[in-house]
Amino acid sequence: MSEPEIKPRDNLQDHLREVQELLHRHKLVETLVHRQDMPRHDLVEGLVHKQHIQELTTRLDEMHAADIAFILESLPIEERTFVWDLVKAERDGEILLEVSDAVRETLLETMDRDELKAAAGTLDADELADLAPDLPDEVMEDVYQALDLEERAQLRAAMSYDEDAVGALMDFDMVTIRPDIRLEVVLRYLRRFAELPDHTDQLFVANRDEALVGVLPLGKMLVSDPERLVSEIMLTDPVTLRPDDKAEDAANAFERYDLVSAPVVTANNQLMGRVTVDTVVDFIREESEAELLNQAGLREEEDIFAPVLDSVRNRWTWLAINLVTAFVASRVIGLFEGSIEKLVALAALMPIVAGIGGNSGNQTITMIVRAMAMGQVDSNSGKRLLKKEVGVALINGLVWGGLLGVLAWWLYGNAQLGAVMTAATTLNLLLASSMGVVIPMAMQRFGRDPALGSSVMITACTDSGGFFIFLGLATLFLM
Amino acid sequence: MSEPEIKPRDNLQDHLREVQELLHRHKLVETLVHRQDMPRHDLVEGLVHKQHIQELTTRLDEMHAADIAFILESLPIEERTFVWDLVKAERDGEILLEVSDAVRETLLETMDRDELKAAAGTLDADELADLAPDLPDEVMEDVYQALDLEERAQLRAAMSYDEDAVGALMDFDMVTIRPDIRLEVVLRYLRRFAELPDHTDQLFVANRDEALVGVLPLGKMLVSDPERLVSEIMLTDPVTLRPDDKAEDAANAFERYDLVSAPVVTANNQLMGRVTVDTVVDFIREESEAELLNQAGLREEEDIFAPVLDSVRNRWTWLAINLVTAFVASRVIGLFEGSIEKLVALAALMPIVAGIGGNSGNQTITMIVRAMAMGQVDSNSGKRLLKKEVGVALINGLVWGGLLGVLAWWLYGNAQLGAVMTAATTLNLLLASSMGVVIPMAMQRFGRDPALGSSVMITACTDSGGFFIFLGLATLFLM
């Protein structure tokens, strides 16, 4: 992708506003909707509109693909479709790669088979692999047939990896050189390119069997005497990735070692492709967004202008799970209805015990999950962490629980109720902290992602647990 | 930073395990603790230990600074301090830059003034600016005196910007060339460098007034005829940043335009410095982690081996806020104690209404906050989003609320109670969705970060609101 012609600073919002203005002021959308049954006397108005469409098209042509993607994501579906139709067909492919999954679906729906084929035809094998799951089979079939043998192999390779494996992040735009040539020859070889692939910060050095023997950073080449051999200058032990490595690990390596690109090699050290930092940045963003969305109980990224029913479906799962856990908590309360009838203050106080437990448990589990993701927790440190978290919970429980106990005493003039409140808060915080350590460690042991649903599970424990502890203690000591 | 000598794949965990083994098996820590009062007959054992210390030191010397940082973060404080003492003094600076803030504090505490000065002395001005807030004033004073005039100006510049401004991400390692020279001259000029600065993917082209007139990507230079002039090849309208731009916007630009570096210029287009993608990746990671931590009610990143009291302090704020909102909700219930006394089923059912409202509200607010962060929401789309969210809430409310109503009817044999349950659930979901849109939009209007505390606020609304709606309806229709 070439450098954008337009400075991004401030301009992105301006772009959006400009497009919206062109769309709204001249009622382009209405024109579009009514064009087919337009009466004769509207023809002049139609011509004016045509001029504005032309203006909009020109502006779109000047914009960077990523900026157009942003604008498409920011427009409601009707206007989005209209703008999408004005985009030059040969840019469809790169823009489809930039938009979010949810918006991509809405754009693909408006395209017929030939348009889809044309858009797919402009993409590299690795890009095609990203788009493939969203394309109809017959389109993919045609596109596949149009590829040459090498590209077909690349497409098959790229599609054979898990979404969260390095193979899925890999591209094939590498410049490969031999170790036994002089730098001057490399410089002459490079001049035969029309342009170097994006993010070429190093050349890959392979022997005649296509095995990677080193990398030659451009910076190192440029400061070296052109008479020297590649093999004298190259780094022989670069960071390499395997196609079935976890993408998360590759991202960590990029972050840790400040990489711009890294070669991907097979177990036999055969050079397969490379991963570049722009893909890694996108991956990191998507991961962290998925984590935030999951914590809030959204299954996936949502097009903010998605039809209501699509949104309902996206949020269904977690609401259902939440309903089940809430129902269980409700039945726990049901066990103690007799006690509540006798001392109705229990009903008012019990949500406090549950709530502070949930908050504290979420703090613990977030910290543990995060430390696990960074590989800093093993079974040794597990015990140590448990001890620490229980210590934190004990202090918090005694302090906040004590405060709550005094409040309850003051509100209801019942010292014993205050004591039960303090004890229940402390016990629920102890439960929260130990579950906050145990749940993610158990998830990891069973090979599950410790982050997934951790917040829901801990809250379920602290709700039901909190109600049970508080009402149980109350029944034992106050009835 | 140079390429690491060691491949990162698999090895990081191995490194950690190896260090831990060396530490544990030979009880190095105990040796350290008891060295001062070691009896004579332990001298032989001490010699053996010395040998293992030597082994550990050698291993550490071979490791990449980022890997040592990882190991330090993964070790409990006593062992961490011991390993830190074994690290070569000249590497202290770069490692301090790599570790998390919380761990950095524990490392700095162990260093005396001379060690701190020596460590700071190995850093560039922009790196020093990152470390400065953690260093004692007298150390910074000495370090500042040791800098040359240009470095002092750079340090002052870097420290004058907000943590979340581009100026704080900026470094000064640029290669600048003039527009009116031939590429061949540029190539010869570059050969005089011992090495190019990291992440040099483009040279900055400045005129004699140091105003930026373009950039020359290395890739473009390498494929061009060396006889041509820089001014013929350079890109004249690159993405540029201002030092007081928001770092978040710069990160978005890097992500959107797939940048490796970008020049930072003043309002007069004077070249000040540059931002590189490795800094941006670190920034993105830190931002998304801060967001996750805040959602869980943690004030800041926490050293997992922090002393209990430090952890208590970190979690205090949000627990206190949570306690206040829970107390308010409890008082709302208190208003209806009479009704609960008459119909104790209300106590068991009310947490369900509050809980599902909180879950649904968090879904809405997360989506809106995220769309806002990407600049996709203005006052126009605000109304549209509100309509959509209310629609989603209405469907969810009728479906789930209906289900809950039937359950309540079945459990308590009271059809009217079921109807109240359905109505209250629906109304609380409507409240949740509208507050989920209104709260972040109001925060933004008042210039606040819409993400901060959004989850706590929405949950406070849906808890108190849910209890009030459910118990209020029950009091009106069932009493």
From TrEMBL, chains A, B:
Entry-linked CDD domains: CBS_pair_Mg_transporter
InterPro entries, per database record: CBS_dom, CBS_dom_sf, Mg_transptr_MgtE_intracell_dom, MgtE_N_sf, MgtE_transporter, SLC41_membr_dom, SLC41_membr_dom_sf
GO CC annotations, alphabetized: plasma membrane
Annotated GO MF terms: magnesium ion transmembrane transporter activity; metal ion binding
Primary localisation category: membrane
Domain CBS: 234-291
UniProtKB keywords: CBS domain, Cell membrane, Magnesium, Membrane, Metal-binding, Transmembrane, Transmembrane helix, Transport
Transmembrane segments annotated in the record for this chain: 348-369, 390-412, 418-439, 451-478
Record-linked PROSITE patterns: CBS (PS51371)
Homology family: Belongs to the SLC41A transporter family.
Function as written in the Swiss-Prot or TrEMBL entry: Acts as a magnesium transporter.
Subunit structure: Homodimer.
Protein name from the UniProt record: Magnesium transporter MgtE
Name of the gene encoding the protein in the UniProt record: mgtE
